[in-house]
Design a protein that fits this description.
This protein has 196 residues and is an all-alpha fold. It has two domains: 9-39; 58-187, no CATH class. Helix content is 60%, strand content 0%. The protein contains seven helices and no strands. It has helices spanning 7-13, 20-39, 58-85, 102-119, 123-142, 157-172, 179-187. Helix 3 (58-85) crosses helix 6 (157-172), helix 4 (102-119) runs antiparallel to helix 5 (123-142) and helix 5 (123-142) packs antiparallel against helix 6 (157-172). The longest helix has 28 residues, at 58-85.
Length: 196
């Protein structure tokens, strides 16, 4: 016995093959869209050497993630240096800090080195020096409190993490969003991309 369906419902149950005219129409629309897309100017910016970036293309995403890691880490390190030298953000432990002391020199390195890393200038040597400074900060200021292999117990986890992040940046470089990358492009004889 056949199910009870009306004439309009029977039409939906049947599968229709597309006509040759409709296939030609779809093909023509696709061709026109492709031609219009190819005529569009490519997106160029000083920070973008390729037109598109997506999660499916890690070759484009990884260098930009490296730049973001460098920028955020440098911004956080600048806050440590400014707390020591400028008193902002205020940390009571750093009141009356002498510039000619271990903490004073650490503050100078963190503030100046963090600023250079933030803009991406002399990134590899600066990151290497800061990595060493933060390793010393852990061994001198935190590991001496005990719990050598447990930095979270001696409040040295930030120093350890910064040290290894900056060691990675010293090995990997600044990434595309940096003055170093721009200098490298200009030094190779290529004109720098314009901002317009």
């Amino acid at each position: 016995m056949e199910p009870l369906v009306g004439p309009t419902q029977k039409l939906h149950l049947q599968t229709r093959k597309p006509s040759l005219a409709s296939l030609r129409r779809v093909s023509r629309i696709r061709r026109i869209r492709t031609e219009r897309f190819e005529k569009l100017p490519a997106f160029h910016s000083p920070f973008n050497s390729c037109p598109t970036m997506s999660l499916r293309n890690p070759e484009l995403l990884a260098p930009r993630a490296l730049s973001l890691l460098r920028i955020v880490s440098a911004f956080l390190l600048i806050q440590h240096g400014s707390a020591k030298l400028l008193g902002f953000p205020h940390v009571a432990y750093f009141d009356n800090l002498q510039l000619v002391s271990l903490l004073g020199v650490a503050g100078i390195l963190e503030l100046a080195g963090g600023a250079l890393l933030l803009i991406g200038l002399f990134t590899r040597p600066v990151a290497f020096v800061l990595s060493g400074e933060l390793a010393f900060a852990y061994f001198i200021g935190h590991a001496s409190k005990g719990f050598f292999f447990a930095p979270s117990l001696n409040q040295g986890d930030a120093a350890v993490l910064f040290s290894f992040v900056f060691l990675f940046i010293a090995a990997a470089g600044a990434g595309p969003w940096s003055i170093d990358a721009r200098r490298r492009v200009e030094g190779a004889g290529h004109p720098a991309p314009s901002a317009a």
